[in-house]
Amino acid sequence: MYSADNHRHCFLFKGSTPEVLSGFLRLCEHLTTPLICAHDVEPYQQLAPLQNTAFRTCSFKQARQELGSSHDAILVDLTHGVSASALAILAGTVRGNGIFAIALPEEDWLSVVDQNLPRYLPWPYQSTQIDSSFKRFLLARLEHDSSPFIVLSSLDHSHQPTPLPALDRLNENAPLTQEQTAAQACLLSLKAKSYVLIAPRGRGKSTLLGDSLAKMLQAGKKVALTAANQTAITTLKKRFDEQLQHSAVTAEFPFFAPDALLSNDTHWDLLLVDEASSIPLPMLMALNKKAKHCLFSTTDYGYEGAGKGFGIRFCRYLEAQSDGCLLPLERLTLRRPIRWGENDPLENWMNDCFFLAPEQNTKSPLSVAKHDDAVLEYSVIKGAEWLTHTAALSQTFQLLVSAHYQTSPDNLRWVLDDPSVSTYLSRQGDHLHSVAIVTEEGPLPDELSSAVLQGTRRPRGHLIPQSLLAHEGIEDAGQYRYWRISRIATQANQQNKGIASELLNHIEAAAKQKNANEECDFLCTSFAATADVMAFWQKNAFVPVRLGTTKDQASGCYSLMMVKPLTDKARQRAAHWHHSYLANLTINLPRDYSDIDAHLADKLAMPLVENPPLITTRFNESRDENPPVCDTISDKDKKDLLLFVHHHRPYLTIRAQLTRLVQSKISRQQLTVTHPDYSLLNALIRQPANKVDFSAFQLNTKKQVEKHLKSVVDALLSM
Question: Which annotated residues bind acetyl-CoA (predicted)?
Fold first, then answer.
């Protein structure tokens, strides 16, 4: 069964765990230690002592740790749970002529409870309530005539697997390919400030980086390497070591963890960042300042689902940087596979199944422009309906992957299996122009809402009502129904034509058509706040009600929640929520959000016409060190502070309320410099949250800080 074209071998085992393990290990008899992945690996671990062939195990949660590794054989057991991301990750680590196997039970797999499904379901749904459309979709792909998987059933005793021959030892120092050599020549010329190497899996990025790192050291350059996970750079390090082994240069492998590199005062000639899309965007921006030249390597599509978005967001940032006569950015690509042969059946199947590869057909519906006189047609698809609309599903995910930095293979399961999710599409004939994924959230029972408000419960899903309860203290937030636009995207050549806004209008009309028992109160959205994205939502009459207190790790932006009320009562509540948001923003924006640019800050602080202009100065004007003075504290402020004192309301969400409390006590001379905590309170209301030095007040741990602050705030409220 040795494949001359270096393709991987695909098998679908059906049987019990012992039967599957026995058949798989028989195939792997001449291969190096195989890997077995499952939702629960304990049954395999229990069988290990009885086997003649050793193997390793990892759970779905641990699959990401295999990035950068190379395996002769992998078995993924899907019997009791499915992880699309684990499948995509592990398939990319199997070398040419190796084995990628999937295990299913002999009985009806669709009837087996999926233990991995709950993570995709909102409260109160359980796995036993859901007939998984994603499992039906995956099974159909596995059993299709075009599937590369050879079925090996425990019931078919006449067809026993034959061990595959041993694989040739990998040549860690093989010459670079013509494509790699061309990319390396561009890098070593150092004509650009930044380089981005984006390529699919198995194209030799790690080999190229390891080889280039060694060559730059040999040329006397000061170089460094960083990556989110050191275990994922095994291939890179091997190539580096092999190159230096035959060189007169002796040097340690120059690897630094990202945080350690940022704290190092050294400025390098060249910094290489491997799998850069798995590192938070703010950290990437900081790393870009640590060297004269930087190379950021990432995967174009596939396992991490962030490569496209990395190219969209981060490359825009790099293109805006300038450094003298250097080009701001040069893009490098590798297309020919090295780890396996071209046109590999497993790679083709994975890309087709999970829509991981870009559409190659230039006449794709995605590239067809909308005629101005054409009427857009609207439709909504959800759950099992997608199984008969696979062409639309492919178009939808191609569009989402190209537009959103966090679209992953797991999102496919979410869209197919979450009963609260509907996908709205605007099309011209067969041509998709815009898509929006809508999640229905709320209402929550009073008892559950109270627990969320107090921070003792965190049910799955229901992002908007949960955050308004837990972070804003809005006691009635759980009573309403919300339609959250969780993703919205328009074809690049169709943007700025009002197509997405027209789709939102259609969604609003659909929300209003619900009967009285299911009446939707709010359309809403939560996104990484930038001025241009916020402008889109403001144009469509959405108003901000909450600004996050910390930056999102993937986007490097603060999250912003906006709502659009659809009923008279909702309009009253939205105005009230927005007024409270502005009152807190007046205090927090100049003090705690100094890293927000002035253009976005002005948009965040823009009041509704019916609201008083609480913020009267532009954010980019010179700012006083003192917070805006407010000598009154409302009943809502008191409730928020009591939730912090007696329950689990996060400290960062009550900083504006605490400021008003302290100022009101000072104005009434109930708090003076003689108070033992005056200096601490003064620091809290004047300094940014991340700049307060609690150790100066003998508070050295987070637990000590929280306990003391609760005691101090409680005492102030009792004055």
Answer: 488-490
Rounded to 5°, the CA angle 122-123-128 comes to 85
Whether 2 has a pLDDT exceeding 90, the answer reads: no
Is 613 exposed, middle or buried (CB count within 10 Å of its CB: 0-12, 13-18, 19+)? exposed
Binding-site residues from annotation for ATP:
180, 339
Query: From the annotation, which residues make up the binding site?
Result: 180, 339, 488-490
Quote the CA–CA distance of 257 and 31 in Å, as a whole number.
33
The pLDDT assigned to 627 comes to: 64
Phi–psi pair at 386, nearest 5 degrees: -60, -25
Split at pLDDT 50, 70, 90, the class of 503 is very high
Q: Name the nearest CA neighbour of 443 among 466, 425, 423, 472.
A: 466
Question: What's the rounded Cα separation, in Å, for the pair 373 and 385?
Answer: 30
Q: What is the pLDDT of residue 624?
A: 46
pLDDT tens figures, 440-476: 999 999 999 999 999 999 999 999 999 999 999 999 9
Class of residue 565 by CB neighbours under 10 A (exposed 0-12, middle 13-18, buried 19+):
buried
Name residue 439's beta-bridge partners: 421, 484
> What is the DSSP code string of 424-443?
EEEEETTEEEEEEEEEEE--
Task: Give the pair of three-digit tokens for residue 543.
Answer: 């108003």
Residue at 619: amino acid letter:
F
User: Which has the closest alpha carbon to 585: 613, 566, 564?
Assistant: 613
pLDDT at residue 307, as a whole number: 47
Residue 711: per-residue pLDDT: 98
Q: Are 96 and 340 in contact (CB under 8 A)?
A: yes
What whole-number distance in Å separates Cα of residue 345 and Cα of residue 147?
A: 8
Neighbours of 558 (CB within 10 A): 19
490 backbone dihedrals φ, ψ, rounded to 5°: -130, 145
pLDDT (mean) for 351-377: 63
pLDDT-above-90 percentage for the chain: 74
Whether omega before 124 lies within 30 degrees of 0, making that bond cis, reads: yes
> Domains of the chain (ranges plus CATH)?
9-153 (3.40.50.11040), 178-333 (3.40.50.300), 374-604 (3.40.630.30), 635-718 (no CATH)
End-to-end CA distance of the chain: 82
Q: How many angstroms from the chain centroid is the CA of residue 624?
A: 37
**Band (366; pLDDT cuts 50, 70, 90):** very low
Would you list which residues are annotated within the binding site for acetyl-CoA?
Answer: 488-490
**Burial class of residue 670 in the structure, from the number of CB atoms within 10 Å of its CB (0-12 exposed, 13-18 middle, 19+ buried):** exposed
Using CA atoms, how far apart are residues 495 and 248, in angstroms rounded to an integer? 56
